[in-house]
C-alpha cells in the first residue's frame, strides 16, 4: 500500500508544508451592510459581523480579517480569500464550494457542515477549534497545516493532498476514499481514525504507534483475518 511508518530515525523523509506568512496592513472597518456576489473587499476588518444567510459568491477578500463572524448558511461559492485571517468564525452550513484560499489562517473555528468541495487551498493554516463534517471532496490541498484542531468525519474523498500535516489534531472517522496523498505527515496527530479509504494512505507517513492502532483497519482492507 506504500504507507511509510516512522521509527524515529533519519531514514524517513517527508517534505514539510510551507506555512502562510500573513502580514495584514492597517485595516478599515467593514461598514457596507451585507456581502455582495462578486464583491471586492480589500484591506477590511469584519468584526463580529453577522453574515448568516448572505451571498458573497465569487467575492474576493484580499488582506482582510474576519474576526468572530457568524457564517450560518453563508454562501461563498467560488470566493477567493488571499492573504487573510479568519479568527473564531462560527456557523453551520457555510458554503465555500470551489473557493480559493491562498496564504490564509483559519483560527479557533467552530464550524459544522462546511462545504469546501472542489476548493483549492494553498499555504493555509487551520489551527485550534473544531470542525464537524468538513467536506473537502475533490479539493486540492497543497502546503496545508491542520494544527491542534478536532476534525469530526472530515471528507477527503477524491481530494489531492500534497505536503499536508496534522500536528496535535484529532481525526475522527476520516474518509479518504479515492484521495491521492503526497508527503502527508500524520505522525504528530493526537489521534487518527479512518472510516473509509485506508487503502489510499500511500504517500502518507505515520508513526509505529499509529501503525499498531490502524492494524485492524489495514488488515480488514487487505482481507486478512486475525484470530
Structural commentary:
The protein has one domain: Pectate Lyase C-like, CATH 2.160.20. Helix content is 6%, strand content 41%. The chain is mainly beta and 227 residues long. The protein starts with a strand and ends in a 6-residue tail after the last helix. The protein has a 17-stranded parallel beta sheet that branches. The chain is built from 1 helix and 17 strands. The model has no long low-confidence stretch (mean pLDDT 93). The radius of gyration is 18 Å and the shape is elongated. It comes from Streptomyces davaonensis (strain DSM 101723 / JCM 4913 / KCC S-0913 / 768). This is Pentapeptide repeat-containing protein. It holds the Pfam family Pentapeptide_4.
CATH topology: Pectate Lyase C-like
**Percentage of β-strand residues:** 35-45%
CATH class: Mainly Beta
Q: Count of DSSP E strands?
A: 17
Question: Helicity level, as a percent range?
Answer: under 10%
CATH superfamily: E3 ubiquitin-protein ligase SopA
Largest sheet: 17 strands, parallel
The residue-averaged pLDDT reads: 93
Q: By helix and strand content, what is the structural category? A: mainly beta
Distance between the termini: 22 Å
In one word, what is the shape? elongated
CATH architecture: 3 Solenoid
Helix-strand topology string: EEEEEEEEEEEEEEEEEH
Number of domains: 1
Give the uncertain stretches in residue-range form: none
Count, helices:
1
- Global Rg: 18 Å
